[in-house]
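Collaborator request log, item 7. Partner lab (contact: R.S.) asked for a structural prediction of M42 family metallopeptidase to inform their binding assays.
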Amino acid sequence: MRDASLQFLQQLVNTPSPVGHELRGLQVWLDYVRPYAEETFWDAYGNCVAVLNKGGSPRLMLAAHADEIALTVHYIDDQGYLYVRRLGGVDPVVSVAQRVVVHNRRGPVKGVIGSVPPHLLKDEGDRKPPKIHELFIDIGAANRREAERRVSIGDPVTLEDQFELLHGQLAVARAFDNRIGTFAVAEALRLLRESGARLQAEVCAVANVQEEVGLFGARQIAYSLQPDLAIVVDVTHATDYPLINKTKHGDVRLGKGPTLTHGGCNHPLLVQRLETLARKARIPIQHEAMSNTSGTDTDAIFWTRGGIPSALVSLPNRYMHSPVEVIHLGDLEAIPRLLAEFARSLKRGESFRAPLQ
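Returned to partner:
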């Protein structure tokens, strides 16, 4: 990966972007993508759009959500300890004994999620998986009054973990889900702009909000932007490590390329086009099958305004929704290449209607 792109990825991942409080991360994204766009804009809730070849047809939306799972302060006890609620799919088990940052309007406040030592438990059976309301944050306050001078009810909380290169092309960070998506759509716009390719389509790279709590930002921007078709970028579960049942969860591996999802919200003609382009460009891909839903913004976009032809491209991710998500940078680099190939392949006015007679 080129140095400037890696630096952008690192800054994007390290910038806190909790659900409903995504503006800092979105500003990083906008600052990076502006030189490659003809126009940028955003809506009331912060869904951001960067446009290339404005006025082209069809209008292609390349969408990814900018939010990360987090916690929010909802109670402070008399001793000054903070209690929290979820912002998205936080697992209390992996949250215990973690360093955190409480994001107050006056500035960041450091803390730790407390953990009772095994010495103070009678036996091994006394340690049960914690519930979210049992998690407490210690910010070093002596009492409630002192804590309230530093934090407020509703302040979001993120883990302290930062981006690192683990080994070779493997990288580790909290919440690659889904800053890798916003990275990929921005990089696709860069590749298209720098290649000087004559596009027929209008390409709109989108960083949308609040996916982790209900796909809300995607619903908003898909409705207002009115794209003719959409490709969504998100993470998927890598299953190439111990304790994962492949007969249940499939066979997805790091280093073997991004995945295409088949079925449901994924329009078969878009998926077929992506497969063909990947083969011609020698971009490695893997395959997944879905049942009822994809669990991504694709579910919200594809039924908007009577149906927007959509497809999902996913990055394999080990240990999702944990502080130690692991990805392969080669898999990530393949995604913007595939998106750019797709955008270049579109003919003026092309539509993806069901091939019925």
